[in-house]
Amino acid sequence: MKANEMMDKDFIYVYPEDIIADVSVKMEKLRRFTTPVVDPDMKLVGWVTSLDVTRGLREGIKNVSGIMHHKEEIMSIHENAPSRLAVIETSKNKLISMPVINDNDEVIGVIRSFDIVDTLSSLYDVKIYKLYEAMQKELKGVTWEELMEASAIITRRTTGERIKPEDYERNIRNATFGEAIWATGGLEKFFVGLIAVGELVIAIKIGKARK
Amino acid sequence: MKANEMMDKDFIYVYPEDIIADVSVKMEKLRRFTTPVVDPDMKLVGWVTSLDVTRGLREGIKNVSGIMHHKEEIMSIHENAPSRLAVIETSKNKLISMPVINDNDEVIGVIRSFDIVDTLSSLYDVKIYKLYEAMQKELKGVTWEELMEASAIITRRTTGERIKPEDYERNIRNATFGEAIWATGGLEKFFVGLIAVGELVIAIKIGKARK
């Protein structure tokens, strides 16, 4: 995924000579906590957050140029850069948002932290059920019942919990990937459990084929 | 993971009778774009964002009570609630942050969107290599070389790319889970690829055992 697939295209922008009070109205109206500062060609020249605006209003500073962070001091990301770079910077520097620029240094969007949350969380929302369906499709010749039976056996072996295949099926109908990795204690453990299930059903499948 | 494991404990808070100009200084100094409004017992009574503060400063409103959103209008999350609820609300309502409360309605922290990004992205940063190590450990009797050989075969079969086991190993040394799911086109596809690898090495393993 590229930066330009995760950005807000309805971003606001301001000019260095804009009046701070007007900028504050614009930001409030459109609920934007940050705004890029651009020149007449839309080239990035700076960055303003609502906390710069409160200082400007309080101290009676008139223009955006008096409160903005200059281009050199801020993070920006190229539209074709991998979006995970934006994720890393947001997380490391606790950013609210960052501008997305093209080859000409023009601002074409803004990536906001909640846009990132939106993208990342959609992964977490994948139903475990879907992963099992993909697994069954890949493991040709294994029935759904065999898969649930194997999962119940592995769960009993791992957790000691006396779970039946039908309980297991009900659990994965509702659970998401995010819940499962938190419940199992991390991606590696979740994954090891699935490999164990895979190993068991494949052993059953090969056993059947040799009969 | 619970809400209280993901929250900022160094949050700021203000009282309804606080002077807005003072609050703005506090928010700027500690770089907080939002703040809970509490009563003397730390009970949540409202919420203020830096965009409410800019309006207050511009319109000459004196106290926090004149700009705050009342408790009933805002999202909060119980400290023991699953943190994914905070993720869902942040993503759905494009929130910058939300207060975390305990059984007594006291504010004990704030979950910020970049804290969520931080937590979610740590999952993405798991090295694929680690998953393969976990896989090898689970599949007792399968060597690392067999695993790489099987992965190269499956990759060739799926993508047509003429990849050697040593190329595959080099790829997974550097790649993260996040890169892999974006490269393969989603969690299910990534997962199907791994199951295919698992099936192949298990078939090899069982074949060896029967010799």
UniProtKB/TrEMBL annotation, chains A, B:
<dbReference type="InterPro" id="IPR000644">
    <property type="entry name" value="CBS_dom"/>
</dbReference>
<dbReference type="Pfam" id="PF00571">
    <property type="entry name" value="CBS"/>
</dbReference>
<feature type="domain" description="CBS">
    <location>
        <begin position="7"/>
        <end position="63"/>
    </location>
</feature>
<feature type="domain" description="CBS">
    <location>
        <begin position="68"/>
        <end position="126"/>
    </location>
</feature>
<keyword id="KW-0129">CBS domain</keyword>
<dbReference type="InterPro" id="IPR046342">
    <property type="entry name" value="CBS_dom_sf"/>
</dbReference>
<keyword id="KW-0560">Oxidoreductase</keyword>
<protein>
    <submittedName>
        <fullName>Inosine-5'-monophosphate dehydrogenase</fullName>
        <ecNumber>1.1.1.205</ecNumber>
    </submittedName>
</protein>
<dbReference type="GO" id="GO:0003938">
    <property type="term" value="F:IMP dehydrogenase activity"/>
</dbReference>
<dbReference type="InterPro" id="IPR016486">
    <property type="entry name" value="UCP006591_CBS"/>
</dbReference>
